[in-house]
From TrEMBL:
It is an enzyme of class 2 (transferase). This is Acyltransferase. It comes from Clupea harengus. Its EC number is 2.3.1.-. CDD domains: LPLAT_MGAT-like (cd07987). The chain crosses the membrane at residues 20-45. GO terms for cellular component: endoplasmic reticulum membrane. InterPro entries: DAGAT. Keywords: Acyltransferase, Endoplasmic reticulum, Lipid biosynthesis, Lipid metabolism, Membrane, Transferase, Transmembrane, Transmembrane helix. The keyword Membrane applies. Pfam families: DAGAT.
């Protein structure tokens, strides 16, 4: 392997730090900035923006304003090289259909999903020509002034039924909505070498697929849980109860973790995001519980097969198992 120059390593670190800064702090800083400006001679700027935001309130639920220019920034390729992140295709995704991709595991910051599906760092549009990807996240992010503009540009959307249905029914075909189904609860299990997926009671995305006739596609990001070392609190402990309550109130779980440098810089652990084969789903506007359960079980089986088929080529020992809870 060719040794990286110190300059290349520095650029990669800055690129990843930008992602971390956005993930952890940018939303808060945008709110602070708007509040601060309201009490200065520039108060007209936040006033005008907030007025416009109210008028533009429903844009995120209509697919947002994705920008090819922003998704192709060179910074994303440097961030990809840091770990590195690799996108692997195991089957074609036809641009004549729509898809819901379930991505696992969440990890701490979901680097694999972010780099592969919200940017062109791994060349998604070249790997899957004619298919457009969106990554669904908490709807609350789109209420944050300024921050919402940035995340919409890279193809992040609210994980709401209204938004997903819009993309699957009113935006043509060739749309792939990526949902990290385990969400905040799954992040609490993130630890090196651990492959725990929260799935048994997550069936809403399957129902959406049936209602809109979108094929289901399992995705697994090998190495995602190796990017940080988390202090995993035991079940029943006070700390764990605080995490659960915080998740229920705010929507995400506070994790105690550390990285390779400065606590926040992740370990340079390779991440391989493997996109599985589509599961053909019929359109059933009012699916029965039996239908939902059936396709949910098919999805779990496909995800398990995908994991075992690719685990050794992605750096795991043959003895590693996937735990679905």
């Amino acid at each position: 392997m060719e040794k990286k120059s110190s300059w290349k390593g520095f650029i990669e670190s800055i690129s990843v730090m930008q992602f971390i800064f956005t993930f952890l702090f940018l939303g808060v800083l945008c709110v602070v900035l708007m509040v601060y400006l309201m009490f200065t001679s520039l108060w007209i700027l936040p006033t005008l923006y907030l007025s416009w935001q109210i008028m533009d309130w429903h844009t995120p639920e209509r697919g947002g304003r994705k920008s090819a220019f922003v998704r192709n920034w060179q910074i994303w390729k440097h961030a990809k090289d840091y770990f590195p992140v690799k996108l692997v295709k195991t089957a074609e995704l036809s641009p004549s259909k729509n898809y819901i991709l379930g991505c696992h595991p969440h990890g701490i910051m979901s680097f694999g999903a972010a780099v592969c599906f919200t940017t062109e760092g791994c060349g998604f549009s070249e790997v899957f020509p004619g298919v457009r990807s969106w990554l669904a996240t908490l709807a609350g992010h789109f209420r944050i002034p300024l921050f919402r503009e940035y995340i919409m540009r890279i193809g992040v959307i609210p994980v709401s039924k209204k938004c997903i249905e819009h993309l699957l029914t009113r935006s043509g075909v060739g749309n792939a909505v990526v949902i990290i189904t385990g969400g905040a609860e799954e992040s609490l299990f993130s630890s090196p070498g651990v492959n725990t997926v929260v799935m048994k009671n997550r069936k809403g995305f399957v129902k959406l697929a049936l209602e809109n006739g979108a094929d289901l596609v399992p995705v697994y990001s090998f190495g995602e849980t190796d990017t940080y070392r988390q202090v995993v609190l035991s079940e029943g402990s006070l700390g764990r109860k605080v995490q659960v309550i915080f998740k229920q109130v705010v929507g995400f779980a506070p994790c105690l973790f550390k990285g390779e440098r400065w606590f926040l810089m992740p370990y340079r652990s390779p991440i391989t995001t493997v996109v599985g084969s589509p599961i053909t789903v019929p359109k059933a506007p009012s699916p029965t519980q039996e239908q939902v359960d059936h396709y949910h079980q098919l999805y779990i089986e496909a995800l398990t097969t995908l994991f075992h088929k690719h685990k050794t080529s992605c750096g795991l020992a043959d003895t590693h198992q996937i735990c679905i809870i």
